[in-house]
């Protein structure tokens, strides 16, 4: 918007650096560094960033190196489920869960207890019980497990995946024995055992507004009105590439408005293999959307991915031909989705090292195209740090007909190279760049806007592009 701001800011920053250096107090002049891990960036926003771990992961040093550096929250993938913890009636095994809890404690991760009541990974002795014995078995299981982990878990998924897709309740052993009242009973029992744990209902395909999330919403309203202890809703978020629901933020907000926390509990984003670089860019855009949705809802307490890397994901085993669903590749190298999630949280991918970085102040600057344009206007904002920047670009259709498919052309300042982007495909990564719409934002109605953006490395010049053209037409200053 105002190209004239940057020179003044840079001059001011330079002056601060110079005087600090003279005074021998450069460290004081250095602003709080942008976080370089998911957990630090999330914590700076008052949230957490988690992963799921299974016991066998703990002996994989490449995996634990990433887990320890990036995550401050851990969900045991299987070890707290009924088939592990009470494989036969009244006989409990908390060894595997304890191992993971101890690991989490040792690495400053909070724990999501997962889960107390679920139709799956349920030992057959439970489903074979006469219906008049199921309630006692359920209450005993909840009481024993929640008491065992009392004070050690941040939250419990008390009932996991209770709904069918049409919003009816699943007719599992618990429903068949107790009707819909089993959910309230389970929550009350868990609360009695561990009054400080946050009690959640957790499910999949409830991320957007749909029949299933509507039914959950209605159930939760009713639970609250009856005084049933419930603290949060877990949105599993097992997404298909490019299909993060547009209503996710609004959906989170409506549950939050009931006085509940919400959390993204099992995030992944599956791709039909082999994953192309365009797929990975789309996945980065999807992760950005999810993180931004959580950031936009104060009561969204955090985001957890299901597994550390693609090598650990359940997707290929369950959806043959699909995979590459996480932020880390098979070798625990970060993918574009990692950079995108970190950038969305306000962090930076520049690796921290013992070498002091040049003190710089993250600068926000903006510029836009020459005024006068016609069918479009563009506003952009650059947020830069010592070696990198993010640029957020909003394109508005100011013409009199809808845009259907678009290319935005702009020229990066010398030394800038795009490393990841969202909501468009960017090519090439430096010089004159063409950003091509993603499938889901090809249409810009009259008066409508699309936001895209990217993360780039730079070598000192953090200037925004001087002008933008949309489908060959120069855009106005937005
Ligand atoms: O990741 C878990 C996998 O190892 C198990 O085989 C599977 C069995 O159902 O459960 C997986 O985790 C699920 C989680 O507990 C609940 N939501 C869906 C997850 C993926 O299936």
The CATH homologous superfamily name of the largest domain equals: Glycosidases
Question: Order of strands across the biggest sheet?
Answer: 1-2-3-4-5-6-8-9
User: In whole angstroms, how far apart are the ends?
Assistant: 6 Å
Find the count of extended strands (DSSP E, 2+ residues): 23
Number of domains: 2
Write the layout of secondary structure elements.
Blueprint: H1 5-23, H2 26-29, H3 38-44, E1 48-53, H4 61-70, E2 73-76, H5 82-85, H6 95-106, E3 110-118, H7 124-127, H8 131-148, E4 155-160, H9 173-178, H10 181-193, E5 198-203, H11 211-225, E6 232-235, E7 238-240, H12 248-256, E8 261-272, H13 277-296, E9 300-305, H14 315-318, E10 322-323, H15 336-344, E11 363-367, E12 376-384, E13 388-397, E14 403-404, E15 407-411, E16 417-422, E17 424-427, E18 432-437, E19 443-444, E20 449-457, E21 468-470, E22 473-474, E23 476-477
The protein binds ligand 9MR.
Main traits of this protein?
478 residues, alpha/beta, 6-stranded mixed β-sheet, 2 domains, 8-stranded parallel barrel, binds ligand 9MR
């Amino acid at each position: 918007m105002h190209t004239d701001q940057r020179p003044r800011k840079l001059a001011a920053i330079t002056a601060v650096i110079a005087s600090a250096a003279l005074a021998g107090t450069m460290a004081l002049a250095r602003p709080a560094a942008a976080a370089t891990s998911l957990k630090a960036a999330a914590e700076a926003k008052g949230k957490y960033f988690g992963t799921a771990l299974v016991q066998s992961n703990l002996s994989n040093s490449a995996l634990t190196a990433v887990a320890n550096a990036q995550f401050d929250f851990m969900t045991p993938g299987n070890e707290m489920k009924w088939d592990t913890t009470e494989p036969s009636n009244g006989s409990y095994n908390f060894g595997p869960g304890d191992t993971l809890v101890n690991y989490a404690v040792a690495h400053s991760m909070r724990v999501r207890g997962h889960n107390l009541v679920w139709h799956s990974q349920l030992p057959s002795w439970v489903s074979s019980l006469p219906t008049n014995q199921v309630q006692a078995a359920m209450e005993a299981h909840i009481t024993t497990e929640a008491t065992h982990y009392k004070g050690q878990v941040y939250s419990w998924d008390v009932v996991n995946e209770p709904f069918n897709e049409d919003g009816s309740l699943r007719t599992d052993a618990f429903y068949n024995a107790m009707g819909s009242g089993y959910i309230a009973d389970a929550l009350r029992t868990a609360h009695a055992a561990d009054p400080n744990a946050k009690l959640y209902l957790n499910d999949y395909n409830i991320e957007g507004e749909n029949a299933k999330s509507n039914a959950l919403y209605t159930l939760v309203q009713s639970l609250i009105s009856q005084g049933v202890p419930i603290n949060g809703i877990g949105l599993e978020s097992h997404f298909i590439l490019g299909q993060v629901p547009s209503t996710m933020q609004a959906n989170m907000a409506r549950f939050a408005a009931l006085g509940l926390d919400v959390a993204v509990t099992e995030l992944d984003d599956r791709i039909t293999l082999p994953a192309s670089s365009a797929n990975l860019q789309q996945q980065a855009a999807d992760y950005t959307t999810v993180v931004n949705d959580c950031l936009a809802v104060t009561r969204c307490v955090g985001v957890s991915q299901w597994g550390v890397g693609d090598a650990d994901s359940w997707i290929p085993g369950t959806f043959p031909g699909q995979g590459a669903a996480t932020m880390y590749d098979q070798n625990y190298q970060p993918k574009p989705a990692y950079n995108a999630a970190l950038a969305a949280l306000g962090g930076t991918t520049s690796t921290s090292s013992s070498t002091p970085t040049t003190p710089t102040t993250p600068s926000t600057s903006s510029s836009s195209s020459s005024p006068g344009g016609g069918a479009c206007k563009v506003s952009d904002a650059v947020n830069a740090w010592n070696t990198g920047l993010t640029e957020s670009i909003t394109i508005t259709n100011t013409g009199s007909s809808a845009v259907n498919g678009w290319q935005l052309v702009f020229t990066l300042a010398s030394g800038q190279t795009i490393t990841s982007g969202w909501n468009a495909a960017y090519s090439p990564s430096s010089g004159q760049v063409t950003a091509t719409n993603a499938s889901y934002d090809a249409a810009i109605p009259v008066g409508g806007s699309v936001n895209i953006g990217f993360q780039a490395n730079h070598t000192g010049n953090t200037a925004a592009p001087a002008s933008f053209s949309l489908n060959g037409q120069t855009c106005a200053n937005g």
